Amino acid sequence: VHLPLLAENWVSRDISRRSSDLGDASDSKHLQLFCFFRCLQAFAALVPGVSQVDNRSDFLGKKPHRKHPGILHLPHVHLPQALTDAAQLLLLERPKRSVEKQVQALTNYLWSRHLPVEPEELQRRAAYLEKKFLEKQDSTQTEEKLREAVLHALRKTTYHWQELSYNEELSLIYMAARLDGGFAAVFRAFHEIQARIPEFQPQTLMDFGSGTGSVAWAAHSTWGQSLREYVCVDRSAAMLGLAEKLLKGPV
Asked: Residues 140, 41: one domain?
C-alpha cells in the first residue's frame, strides 16, 4: 500500500466535502491547517502503532492549559553566581560606554555574517557569468579579457567571507555580548534532555569551539553530580584564556 498516495486521496476527497465549512477559498491558512491535521490522521489510521491526532479544542478536558503535556516547566535562567562575578570583574576596568558600543557593533556584525560560498556554487556562478559575457562579447575581446570581466563581476556579487580571529580584546567583547544568551540556550536544551531522560547521567563532556565555556557551565548546572571530566577545545588561545579566567574566578 502506498501510504502517502492513500493519505493524499483521502484528504483531497475530504477537502471538497469540507470546503464550505472553511468559508472563502482565499482563507488558505485554515485550509492548510485542516489539510495538515487530516494528513496526520490518515497516516495514523494506516500505520500500526501511531496514535490518532486529537485536534479538538476540548482534548484537555477540564485540565488547565498550564498542564498541557507539551509544556516544560523551565524556571527563569540565571547565570551561575560564580560566573557572573568573574565576568563582571573582567569588565570592571573597561569604560561602560565603550564596551556597550563595541558589544552592539560585534552583535550587528555577527548577525550580518553569511556562510562562505562553496567552491561548486562559485564555479556555477562563474560559468553563468561567462555565458552572459560570451553572448555580448565583441570579436576583439580576448580570453584573458573575458576572464578578468568574470572575476570582476564575481567580486562585486559574491559575499566576501572573512575568518574572525579572536584576540584578548575581541574575546572580552564577545563574552559581554553572548555569554548570557549562549548559556541560556544550552541550559534550555540540557534541561529538556534531563526532563525527558532523567536516567541519563553523563560523566564526560567534550566541547569543540568552546568559546567562553558556557556549555561547560550549563552542563555543570544540570549534571554537576555526575560529570567528572570537561574538555574544551577552541582554536583561539585568547578565548581559551578567557574561559579559564571565568572558571577560576576572582584571584
From this structure: no
Whether residue 198 sits in one domain with residue 86: yes
- Which cell numbers hold the place of 222? 544540570
User: Do 109 and 172 fall within a single domain?
Assistant: yes
Q: How many domains does the chain have?
A: 3
Q: What is the per-residue pLDDT for 146?
A: 82
Domain of 104 in residue numbering reads as 81-113+164-248
Q: Which residues, including other chains, have CB under 8 Å from residue 78's CB and lie 6 or more apart?
A: 84
If phi > 0 it is left, if psi is from -120 to 50 it is alpha, else beta; for residue 231 that is: beta
- Statement: the pTM of the whole predicted model exceeds 0.70: no
Is residue 53 a part of any domain in this protein? Answer: yes
pLDDT for 30: 54
Nearest alpha-carbon partner for 230 in 222, 171, 238: 222
Buried b (16+ CB within 10 A) or exposed e, 63-97: eeeeeeeeeeeeeebebeeebeebbeebeeeeeee
Q: What torsion do the CA atoms of 154, 155, 156, 161 make, to the nearest 10 degrees? A: 110
- DSSP one-letter string for 66-104: GG-TT---PPPP---HHHHHHHHHHHTTS-HHHHHHHHH
| Inside any domain, residue 16 | yes
- Beta bridge partners, 205, equal 230
